[in-house]
From TrEMBL:
Signal peptide extent: none
Domain Enoyl reductase (ER): 28-321
Alphabetized UniProt keyword annotations: Oxidoreductase
The organism's taxonomic lineage, starting at the top: Bacteria, Pseudomonadati, Pseudomonadota, Gammaproteobacteria, Enterobacterales
UniProt protein name: NADP-dependent oxidoreductase
A Pfam family matched in the record: ADH_zinc_N_2
Alphabetized Gene3D superfamilies for the sequence: Medium-chain alcohol dehydrogenases, catalytic domain, NAD(P)-binding Rossmann-like Domain
Lineage top rank: taxon: Bacteria
SUPFAM superfamilies in the record: GroES-like (SSF50129), NAD(P)-binding Rossmann-fold domains (SSF51735)
PANTHER family according to UniProt: ALCOHOL DEHYDROGENASE RELATED, RETICULON-4-INTERACTING PROTEIN 1, MITOCHONDRIAL
Species name: Rahnella inusitata
Amino acid sequence: MNHSPTPDRGNTNEQQAKGRALRLHAYGGPEALKVDHVSSPEPGPGEVLVSIKAAAVNGIDWKIREGHLRERFKLTLPATLGIEMAGVVIRTGYDVTNVKPGDRVMAALGGVGAYTDFLVIDAEKLVLTPAGLSDVQAAAIPVAAMTAWHVIQAADFDLSGKRVLIQGAAGGVGGFAVQFAKMAGATVYATASTTSLQHVRALGADDVIDYRQQTLENLADQIDLVVDLVGGVVLDQCWDLLAPGGLLVSIAAPDVIARAPLGRRGVFLSNKPDTARLASIAQQVAAGTLRSTIAEVISLGDLPLAIERNRTGHPPGKIVADLTLK
Ligand SMILES: NC(=O)c1ccc[n+]([C@@H]2O[C@H](COP(=O)([O-])OP(=O)(O)OC[C@H]3O[C@@H](n4cnc5c(N)ncnc54)[C@H](OP(=O)(O)O)[C@@H]3O)[C@@H](O)[C@H]2O)c1
């Protein structure tokens, strides 16, 4: 396999890209993550070398860090974490036609490796970043927005006029899910903690429920689509809320089918790549017709504690590492 870029698609005289990477050295707590200095490989056929400017934190980061997903993500340690990013194309490998050096791009990696200055990635995973979005804004979109899109699409019935409950609406996925459910014509019920209620209302939810103060019993047998972004006990309390024919979609509990009581329908959903849809969503965020919320902007070195805050609680929206901050 030829890993050399062609002269007309990139500069073969460039030095090998060297930069920082936040790498997991052993399964465990925040101390298991360290900033190392690494060299990036050259892009092979169909690949692109990207200078990463921003990368967003996801719940999966701490789950990988603690080793909960070691069967699903078979990592060779030390491994660079991070599953989504935005940056600038440095060089392209042979047979890349969709992007060129200098293009601003964004992507969900479909794996790990985004918490680093330089990344080699399949060109087909990249979407051009709209001019109206900063790199920090772009990095916050791919995983949360696409997952929320798929969750709302998972309903096998028209959502117009139906009741949708979004559990965990203040988070990265929840913020987009509220908006997509409203766009589909649903009446949206959403749960959030006290300090996030106003944020979720502002996203368009019709009824925002403080999960620390209120119960959901008055919604029994009324919800057509439950979107579970929390799992555990929260998920189990939702079965009685489903209306006849209703569906529960979880992204947080892979065992949702096994947990479903007789006669109730539940499915687990994983994010899937769809660059055309991501490009469209990014354009909507740039145009201001869709809101993407940034909870915090941090540096690469701040990531270990930020990943921990994603586990223990954080302000509404996404935490994003700005790699241009030193
Ligand atoms: N399957 C997939 O492909 C996929 C893709 C993306 C994410 N995920 C998973 O989906 C989950 C959500 O992701 P995310 O990025 O949106 O995470 P996030 O930004 O951390 O949001 C989670 C939200 O859940 C809320 N929450 C916590 N306890 C709650 C409760 N008892 N009731 C209602 N809400 C509660 C928190 O809001 P408050 O601040 O209001 O407490 C928090 O904002 C994570 O577990 C993540 O790993 C799965």
